[in-house]
Amino acid sequence: MKRFFRIMSIFIVCIMMLSFSACKGSKKTDKQDSILVKGDADIDLEGQTIIISIPEYMHPEIHKLDHQGWTYEDSEYDLKYKELLLKRLSEVEKKFNCKIEWNTNNLAVFNNVNNKGEKADILYCGGDNVDFIRLIMENIIVPLDDYIDFSSEVLSNSVQNCALWKDKHYGIYKDPINFAGPLLVYNKDFIEKEGLPDPLELLKTDQWTWDAFLDILKAATKDLNNDGTIDRWGYANDGYQSVFLNYLFTNGASYIEYEDGKFQFVLDRPEAKYAINFAKDIYKTYKVAPDTTVNAMGWEDISRLFETGNCIFKDYWGETSEDFDFEVGLVTFPKGPDASSSIQYTTPGGFYAVASSTKNPEGVAVVMAELFTLYDKSRDEYISEEDLIKTYIPEEYVDIFTDISKNIKYNWFLDSDSQFGQTLSSIFGQVMLKDKSLEEAINEQKASLDTMINGMNK
After folding, report:
1. Could you check whether 2-178+347-410 and 183-346+414-456 share the same CATH topology?
2. What is the pTM of this model?
3. Are 220 and 190 in contact (CB under 8 A)?
4. β-pairing verdict for 328-332 and 183-187
5. How far apart (Å, rounded) are the C-alpha atoms in residues 177 and 182?
6. Which of 15, 101, 377, 383 could serve as a FRET partner for 175 with CA atoms 20 to 30 Å apart?
């Protein structure tokens, strides 16, 4: 189990930042025509150099890198992946009469979206400080649906929704699987000792619900020495904002959604109201989690509580479990009463996009599609989805993580640095800190929200 968490911590860091890729053979067959690329015209890029902007550790010829105090080193799987990528790259260069260069020095330029993508033709959109909405609204990246067939088997997976805006795809995610949804880690030994139902088993039988979670939290939360102070918590988190988001999405609710051809504010719907009230009650009514608005706690404090057995659940942050004296389990957040299945959420990112400044967007898009689909099983050589899963995930978790990938919900409006994220944070704050109803909190922000949403719908 400790080996699993060590591997998972490396994997999650990589998938939150990484996104690498591949291509087809040197001559497009009829079968391949129907898989990815729209149209049947031959593309000759006449010797054009295509620059791909990526972080340095993603370079296919770099296998070990020391950066800001941590060391990235390719695993056996990574080495295989990059080897195939380089092979496909040379085929693509020959096939489309182009030259591909990797640019690992202009990330700061790219993150400054005013650059308009002038330094690269293909941009890796991931990491911090990337305003994805602005990239699209200011036409810095282009939609791909006129060039790429996203209904094809290799691209018709749910993770491609990470770049879906107004029903158009603005990028290609390199994997058919995304494990980036929020998770809970729990003290499995405590669960067994107390005779409580194991969350993982509840999830497998579709019984992992808010009520089941709350029952365990209530049983775990105790004043152990009868001094009037809680010594052991059911759950602990270093901030209520993420808790509100988890309950919002796991109840099938949302903040802003694209419906009926336009963006609409949906936080005022009944399922959202129920979710926010339940999340608040975790702290204020049931008191099964420490209220960090009263006594501030950082992630180090939360980790210490968990390590010492003084909280049973906490958010999973990719820890290695090295210092734990007990066995731990991993599970998704439970589903709410208005959700038909377990839903995980995340923000967009980790995709490759075509810069609007490139002189031949169709040709560049086709090259990108050929490069960044290493999992295409119609090709002679490919990296299998099964290999990816089994490399990083022990057998008992394979089904869970596969389901997470299928049920991930992407939302563009949650980045805390964006205007939309700050507005949502203010609404949550009014509910949690000022004890206002959700309706009251929304009304205070309604005018600015309407202005922002109307601007996107023009």
Report:
1. yes
2. 0.83
3. yes
4. antiparallel
5. 15
6. 101
